Amino acid sequence: MLAYIKGSLEEKTSTYVVIDVGGLGYKIYMSENAIDKLGEIGEIIKVHTYYQVREDDISIFGFITSEELKMFELLISVSGVGAKSALSILASISPSSFAFAIISDDVSKLVKIPGVGKKTAARIILELKDKLKTVQAVDAKPEEVNININSEGKVTEAIAALQVLGYNKKEVEKAVESIDTNSLEIEDIIKKGLILLSK
Predict the structure, then answer these.
(1) What is the largest CA-CA distance in the chain?
(2) Cα separation values, 89 from 101, 110, 115, 182, Å
């Protein structure tokens, strides 16, 4: 419903901000890291938003980048992970590190996040990997593969990680095709891919 909100930053706390848009103050919940990056009171800012409607509550959650928003939407789709837990996870790990942890089954990286135990970490990896497999099954048309992946597993893994963050295979392959992947680690390929995909 609300793709983003752009207006004057009126209030900052450790858990939410208030943005004034034409005399209306929107209370937007964000991670503490994101709030710290927003700027000063009175500045015009733009945040990507997720509008959550429940029987007993209507809340708006805000994100500095569209990748953070996609990661949040993925996290709350996992059974047992609520919006507040998702914000906590966002505050502790970047979208590129998160995507790499999913595709490499790195439970140890996720359990370092406050509030995430082994069971939750395993569930996040399992459910999001299953979603990725579904996306790949839909996307796997031979004529759409524009990149020469050769035997480079790191490129394949980077493509899978970017798909975890919600990008389709065709646009990911186009972005990765323009990156010199030979000298880069997987996470660096993911980071560069995110920069290209967010343009």
Answers:
(1) 57
(2) 13, 9, 8, 31
Task: Give tens-digit pLDDT for 46-78.
Answer: 999 999 998 888 999 999 988 889 889 989 999
Other CB atoms within 10 Å distance of the CB of residue 112: 12
DSSP characters over 69-129: HHHHHHHHTSTT--HHHHHHHHHHS-HHHHHHHHHTT-HHHHHTSTT--HHHHHHHHHHHH
What pTM did the predictor assign?
0.74
Q: Which domain CATH number covers 47?
A: 2.40.50.140
Q: What is the dihedral of CA 87, 116, 169, 146, to 10 degrees?
A: 120
Q: How many domains does the chain have?
A: 1
Which range of residues forms the domain containing residue 10? 4-63
Q: pLDDT category, 178, cuts 50, 70, 90?
A: confident
150 inside domain? no
53 sits in the region (left: phi over 0; alpha: psi -120 to 50; else beta) called beta
Q: Is 125 exposed, middle or buried (0-12, 13-18, 19+ CB in 10 A)?
A: buried
Highest mean pLDDT among 37-46, 64-73, 80-89, 161-170: 37-46
Contact indicator for 191, 67 with CB cutoff of 8 Å: no
